[in-house]
Design brief:
This protein has 137 residues and is of the alpha+beta class. Helix content is 12%, strand content 15%. It contains two helices and six strands. Strands 1-2 form a two-stranded antiparallel ribbon. It has a two-stranded antiparallel ribbon with strand order 3-4. Strands 5-6 form a two-stranded antiparallel sheet. The longest helix is centred in the middle third of the chain and has 13 residues. It is flat. It starts with 10 loop residues before the first helix and ends in a 17-residue tail after the last strand. The mean pLDDT is 82.
């Protein structure tokens, strides 16, 4: 077990599953990617389900996402039920603010790589039918 004087419970020490409410002891309060202790970081970190992610690691992850996708193969005309970043290839399901009028184009930033992109909303109407039962149930 760890010394948990700074915090009451540590999921790392206890060997339990992490979540956003889980705490870490002073010893384990480090960036989940590089291991830098919270006391050594100079910029506000990003929350992470296992603790936090420091800004330099976040920037490096986003740069790697942009570099790892061949955007020349991105099809701008392909319609899908999710938003696909033309820079890094990440697909995500739209949030409420992403729903706009049919044919409306707007600029947004990719949540994975922070690159700006243009998104156009398309709506499709579909129907289904069923027999109506006659004479009661």
């Amino acid at each position: 077990m760890c010394d948990v004087t700074a915090k009451t419970e540590c999921f790392v020490c206890d060997g339990t599953e992490p979540n956003y409410r889980a705490q870490r002891c002073e010893k384990h309060d480090v960036c989940v990617h590089c291991g830098t202790h919270r006391s050594k970081i100079t910029e506000i970190p990003w929350g992470h389900h296992e603790g936090f992610l420091c800004q330099p690691c976040d920037r490096a992850n986003k740069a790697a996402a942009r570099a790892g996708y061949d955007s020349s193969e991105h099809d701008d005309t392909e319609e899908r039920d999710s938003i696909k970043c033309p820079t890094c290839g990440d697909e995500y399901h739209p949030e409420m603010e992403d729903y706009r009028g049919d044919g409306e184009t707007y600029e947004t930033d990719c949540p994975n790589c922070d690159s700006p992109m243009m998104v156009t909303t398309h709506y499709t109407v579909e129907w289904s039918t069923a027999l109506v039962s006659k004479g009661g149930a």
